[in-house]
Every structure is written in structure tokens, then in C-alpha cells.
## 1
Amino acid sequence: MATSPVVPENRPPEELNRAVIFLGPPGAGKGTQAKQLAAKFMVPHLSTGDMLRENIAQGTPLGARAKPIMDRGELVPDSLVLKMVAGRIERPDCWHGFVFDGFPRTVAQAQYLGELLKQHGFRRPLVIHLMVDTALILRRITGRRVCNVGGEIYNLYDRPPKVAGRCDNDGGELLQRPDDREEIVAPRLHAYEKQTSPLVAYYKRLGLLHDVDASKSVEDVKQQIDKALLVARTRH
Ligand code: AP5
């Protein structure tokens, strides 16, 4: 007899049932917003950056290949990332949708994802394009600190913890990512411009792109995303 999927009893009344993609430069706020949206719909938050960092922490062969590339602020080859993502969305917790943060990042990744979503019977994704200018990006990246226990994201300038260096939620230590040093920001922005920004035109052509002004407050950006979701439900 086939086993039925494990579906939490307390699912929200409104289901996502699709992939949401957060597209935007480093530090635009993809992780901050993607986590909140995934929690609201009780679906997985799939950050390819976090997955790669987990592989590095666990000392896997994938982590060993990815680490020097990430430390230089370059993109990890498509083949490695695609295998990782394909394996992840196979899992039953993805059956009601999922929120991508930092994926896809090249046109080849987007094309592959399109095929993958079709194969899994999902409708077309909703793409949230977070737009923010470079001056703000630098402040957000260099000020970011991340809890080493629960992953909560802080900012020394805009969202400081109550106690310096400690997470408000669980007291975990707040760390700076190795690639958040100022000298790595320029290569990361260059990689975004060259390899990822063509996705804006790609998804616009497909009619799936929703522009959001990400220079506003976290709450304001969240409201713009909620509106985009409402629009997307009626359109595609
Ligand atoms: P990844 O981890 O994806 O990093 P990224 O894309 O550079 O994005 P960030 O995590 O830096 O920023 P974010 O937009 O999530 O901002 P956040 O919400 O944290 O990738 C790291 C590396 O992994 C890549 O360089 C690459 O090497 C590799 N990689 C990953 N995916 C890959 C792929 N698909 N293909 C190939 N390689 C891949 O916010 C930033 C700060 O701003 C925080 O401090 C936050 O508190 C603050 N903030 C957020 N929103 C606001 C707001 N509205 N107002 C004020 N402050 C805010």
C-alpha cells in the first residue's frame, strides 16, 4: 500500500501550492523576507546559500568544492547547485510549495527549474524581484550578523540585537559571514550583474516578475510582497 505524505494538521487556511522565487542582489533582503513568507504558509525556505554553507560546515565533498568559490564571491557551478536543489524538492515537505532564496541565479538554472516544476506538477512560479541601490546594499551586507543557532538575521545599523553579539531568540552567538567582508562585496555584486540580473528580463518576458521596492522597511517590503501574491493568484 502506498504511504500518504506527512502533512501537518495545523496547515494555514490558504495554501501556497507553488514555488516562490526571491530574486535580487546580495543584501537586498531575500533571506529576511523568504523566511517570513515560508513560515506564513508553513512551507520550506530553500536557501541555496544556506545549503552550501551547511555542506561546508559538515565537510562534505560538495562543501569542499564550494568553499573557495564562495569565499571569492563567485557563483558555484550550475551542475553542483542543480543536483542539490533537485534532491531537495523531492522531499514530501515540498508538496505544498516552497520559497527559494538565492535560486535560480543563472538563466540555465531558471530553465532547469522550469522543467523541474513541470515534472512535479506545479504551476508557474511567482518571482519577487527585490530592487535596492548599491549604497544601501553595502550597509546591509557589512552590518549583517547571523545567529549560529537559529539563523536569525540581524543588522548592526538597522536591526541590532538587544544584547551585543547575542541572539534575542535563543542567546546564540551572532557571527559575520566570511563573504560579508567589504572586499568581497564588489565581486559578489559583479557576479550578480553579469550572471543573475539577466533573469529579470527572462522572468519579465514570461510575465512572472513582480517588482518590489526593497529600500523600504522590512514591514513595508512584506506588505508589497503580500500584494504581489494576491495579484499573482488572479493572473497565473
Ligand atoms: P547567498 O547566501 O544566497 O547570499 P546572497 O545572494 O549574496 O544574498 P545575501 O544572503 O547576502 O542577502 P539577502 O538578500 O538574503 O539579504 P538578508 O535578508 O540577509 O549566497 C552566498 C554564496 O553562495 C554566493 O555568493 C554563491 O557563491 C553561492 N550560491 C548560493 N546560491 C547559489 C546558486 N543558486 N548558484 C550558484 N552559487 C550560489 O539581509 C541583509 C541585511 O539587511 C541583514 O542584516 C538584514 O537584517 C538587513 N535587512 C533586510 N531587509 C531589510 C530592510 N527592508 N530594511 C533594513 N534592513 C534590512
Note: The first strand starts at residue 19 and ends at 23.
## 2
Amino acid sequence: MGAFKDAHGGALRNLYLDADAAEAVKRGSGGRKSWDLTDRQLCDLELLMNGGFSPLDGFLGRVDYESVLTDMRLASGVLWPIPITLDVTPAFADKIEIGETIDLRDREGVLNATLTVTDKWQPDKRAEAIAVFGADDTTHPAVRYLHDHAGSVYLGGKVQGIEAPMHYDFKHLRDTPQELRDRFRKLGWRRVIAFQTRNPMHRAHQELTFRAAQAAEANLLIQPVVGMTKPGDVDHFTRVRCYEKLIGHYPEQTTALSLLPLAMRMGGPREAIWHAIIRKNYGCTHLIVGRDHAGPGHDSAGKPFYGPYEAQELFAQHQDELDITMVPFPNLVYSESRVQYVAEDKIEPEEKVLSLSGTELRRRLQEGLDIPEWFSFPEVVDELRRTHPPRHRQGFTVFFTGLSGSGKSTIANALLVKLLELGGRPVTLLDGDHVRKHLSSELGFSREHRDLNILRIGYVASEITKNGGIAICAPIAPYAATRRKVRDLIEPMGGFLEIHVATSLEVCEQRDRKGLYAKARAGIIKEFTGISDPYEAPEEPEMRIDTGELTPDLAAHRILIKLESLGFIK
Ligand code: PPS
């Protein structure tokens, strides 16, 4: 076979020490430095230790790293497309000597592994992004991760496994490569075709996988990624419940479901080859590669990062070297006249095709609208509806911003009462003054402290929103960037409405209900918003309220109408 098999005979790595040796390493950890693994590093470590990343036996050293970037191969010549690196902070790296062994721990402090450091270097992240992902464009999630989250120094070296990362969920669906290989052997499955997915599976996916398995005369392994996928994807808990429902739609005893704790990079063609090597390690003989495999979507110019069949093409070029066979698959679309799914390229010019985009599916879920049976199985849709209730049952946050004395609190209170009158969801008011008393009493009004204050409010509001409640926030929140962070925190959890109470400084100062403006002018209160501290007015709030024109009652009423039009109240 090809170089991959020659290099290590197709054998699985198992980096775990036996129980006694692991115990001894744990006891000796007193003098060693310790690195707290990020979520992504923990995913990578799990697959290094259990052999999912065979033939790797640790985090890449510099020579291997550079060779992976330029040639898609380890220095030994073995095909390996994605750099598996341990990124750390410069402060941590400075303390580490080459040859030193360090502990690798999860966020609870559990000792998962040790790393004997052979390499330490500062990577050229731009070069890495271009070599691996094709562009240094932070619209690509892995490029964004590389620049915004990954540490600036890489450590390389061999790993010794002490303890596998703990998973409390779906234990019955988690297998190591060795366990899956053993299961296939026990079941007599000699040909196994793997299907990789990070999305809920609908009828088209079921058809595609079933037909691919038939064509390859193989049993089917559905192996969804549950480590890290593309930000914004449906959470894995919901997806796995959907897959469990779907599995009943295959002929009995032909199909297995097993979860893969992989941290995807959305690296398209390179990622397809990586997925193949991993699936081979898990005992599969075939891998389905569809349209736009592991695609990250569009770049900052609005163009797709990779061509639709680029992953299939790169795979085909390396097929001889890979001890697993690609089963390329075109997109399937639903033909109304044939009442079945048909390969996209087999559709006649006049044939009517039904389709439902991801955006349309989300809209229908949000609005509680029908999702047709040709598109998905009713049990799968029910499962999706449980975690994606229609908007009128989701939580939301109304975030007021405006100068001191602009009328935020008065309108917020009016809105609170009107929402309580409507009933159905708990409502919490996080007013500026109240928060400063109960949540942020130690904070002042420097930019740093204001940001902390607003992020705390954002955090509490996001929890309320996530749990289906209503949060009304009414701080000054003078900085646009901080408000943006709060929006980013809350929007994935439910609704977010920014409301600018746009009362002018002159009017606020004229009213001066608390006498604060007079004190600010006299220099008694420092850093006072509007007088001696900036206020950045929102450019595109969901609503702007001019309290010169509207009474608080009417303002609150207008907000209710807005909420109704968005579907958040019925
Ligand atoms: S911030 O910037 O969002 O953290 O401010 P916030 O938490 O909303 O607090 C604003 C209330 O604190 C009083 N106060 C000040 N405001 C602005 N600047 C300075 N220096 C200041 N010192 C005290 C003021 O009463 C604000 O209440 P509201 O309800 O906005 O009038």
C-alpha cells in the first residue's frame, strides 16, 4: 500500500501508560510545570492518545510542522494534512526548557497527559493560514481561531497518556478506534463506509448514506463530530438525539452510530484527507465525500473558500496512498414528479425540484411553521423543535442604552409591567443603578470598570435569555464595542433588541433629576458620561426613542409592537 501504511504498518497508536505507570507519573507531578488545555487542545489530545490521529505520537515538532504546511506530509513522507500543534502563551513558553516534561491538564485540573518538549518556536500564523486553509482571511473559522485564540508559541514533543478526557454525555455512543475496530470484527463487518457530519441529518442525508453503503456493498457508520464544529452550528446534544431517531430508518443491523470527539478546522480539501486518515484508524474501509466537504462557507469577499468538488479532487489525487477508499457523492435534490431524491446532475431541465435551505429551515423552526415530510423525518423535526422553539417561546433581552437621565429606567419599568401583564415568561429588570448596587458595587466609572459592568449585565442577561426568560437591561453602556460583545453573547441564545434612548445631552442636563450634571460640571463627579466621558451613540439599534416625542407609556407600547412584529410575543 501507500506511504501511510508503510510508515507504521497501519498499526494504531496507543499513547496511554498502563495503570501503575500512570499512577507513578501522577504522584511525581509536584515538580512539573502544568499547562491548562484549551477545549480544542483537549479534543486533539484525546485523538492523539487513543490512536485516532495515528501515526502521530505527540504534538508536532517544528520540522514536521513545516513539512505539513508545505507538502501536506510529515518529515518522514507520511501523508498528514493538518498541523496538530500545542499553542501556548509566550509567558508559559519562556519558563519551559527543551527536554523538560510538562503536565497537560483539563480545566478541572485533571492530569490527562504529559508532554516531553523537544521543540519550541514562534510560528508565522499568516503563512500557516495560507498554507493550510488557502487564505489569511479571518472569515474562515480556523484562521480566526489561529489569530484570535491560539497562543503565539508552539510546543512540540511526544505525549504520554495518563487519563482520557471525561465525557459525561452519550457514553453508550463513544468508542475509541480500538473499540470500533473490535466491534466491526465481532459483527463481521469487513467493509465499513463512514459518514462524517456536523449537522442534523434529514431525508437527503439518509438517502445519500444508504445509497453510498449499497454502492460500496458496505455497512454504514454514521460518525458525527461532537468535539468542536463551526461556530453557530446546532449543539451536539440536539444533533445526537436527532441521529438516534434517524438510525431507525435504516435496515436493521446494517448501520452503527458512534461519536467522534474531533475539533474540526473546516479545512475543506485538506480536512477531507484528515477525516479519511482518522476514519481508517477507526477501522473504516470507505469514506463518503460529498459536495463541499468540511467547507467553511464564504470568504470576506463573498466567494466560497473552496470549490464544491475540490475535496473530492484532492482526495482522488492521494487515493493510492490512503488505505481507505473515497466514495464521492453528488448533492441529492428532491424531484417532485419522481417523488424521490435524485442526484443534482441527473435532474432534467424541466423537472421541478423542491428544496429547503438551512436559513429557511431555521425560519420555519423559529416561527413554528410546517416542515414538510419530504425534507425530514417527523421524529427528527420534533427533536429540533424541542431545542429550537418558536420565537414566542424563546427568551430575549431588551437592552436600553442612553445618557444618564435620558429616561431609560422609566421606559424599562413601563415595559416590565406591560410584559408582566402579558405573562407567560419570567421578566427581570437589570437597571443601571440596581446592578451597580448588587452586582458591581466595587466598580467605578473608568472605561475598564464600565466594560466589566456591562459584560456582567450581558452575562446575566444571556443566562436569562438562554433559559427562556426576558431580561430588560438599562445601563448607560457608552461604548459601542462593549455593546457589540453583549449582543454576540446573547444573540445565539434568543432575541436581542438594542434600544437607544436618544434624549439629547441638553435635555438630560436641563432635567438633571439627580443633580449629577451640576456636580459633573463643577468637577465634583469625574468621568461623567456626556460631560467629561464619551458616549458612542448606537449606529443601528433595533429602535431609537426620542423622549421629547413619546411618553414612557407610548415608548413601552412601541417596543411591545416591535417585539410582536419580530414574533417574540404573540
Ligand atoms: S455604565 O457606564 O453603563 O457602566 O453606567 P451605569 O452602570 O449605567 O451607571 C450609571 C448610573 O450611575 C450614576 N453615575 C454616573 N453615570 C455616569 N458617569 C459617572 N461618572 C457617574 N457617576 C455616577 C448615574 O446615576 C447613572 O444612572 P442613570 O440611571 O443612568 O442616570
Note: DSSP finds 21 helices and 19 strands in the chain.
